[in-house]
Amino acid sequence: IRPWTNARALVASANGVVYAGDDGRIEFQIDSSSRMVINLTGQEVFLGALSVLGEEADLNVGIVGFTLLSDLHNGQGVDLSPGTFTITDQNLGIISTIDVSAATDINDVLTIINAQLAADGITNLQATIGLEKNNILLDTTQNGLISNVTALDKLNEGNGVDLHPGEILVTDGGAINATVDFSSAATIGDIITAFNTQIAAQGIANVAMQINAAGTALEIIDSNGVPLGLSIMETSASENTASTLGILGDIDPTLMGRDLDPVVSFKV
């Protein structure tokens, strides 16, 4: 009832409820030149179109371990034919083939993935239900391992290796001064091959580069009966190739390189 007219604003009729009120607006003065409407009409409140519950909301329930694969994707399920996919550790070159064709629920999928990864030697990747509870998360941890296939741009926490110009100096401070060019290298294996090939070609025998036993860095070993007293240096004060490869220092008779800390790199 509108108090100033004593008339009802909403009146029942043969065709439903009719709004008989006005469209008056009550304004609140904010400052000397601005006002804000602070009311709604009866028509806006009671006769507006209703929205369908949930039409603008995601009401899909999350997944749990016993959620059936056949219930996923709005009941469309998961294509399990052939039901296989691969996960590749791009730092170590390990390819793990996962076969979930026999899985019936989320727990089955997680168990199969994790068991196969472990069997293939991938120990820093774990499949689990994601924090959003609507996906599977492949959770990684840093293990610091490198191999011949590790890309140089993954090293040093993703900062890579300085390959401009990409040269190092192998010297005994006297007669031996050998330059090794890494400018065309893309992987750890390329670095090792370039060093060993170029050193031998320049007449330096029994000196070789390899990955250390821990699998985390490069090392250079002088296996001569009497070590040659070699050192690895930059070719100039402005270069960083040896430093970013972790091999600055003396080969006496082994130069144990710095850990190269590659970023975790997997491909599914």
UniProtKB/TrEMBL annotation:
Protein name as it appears in the record: Uncharacterized protein
Protein source organism: marine sediment metagenome
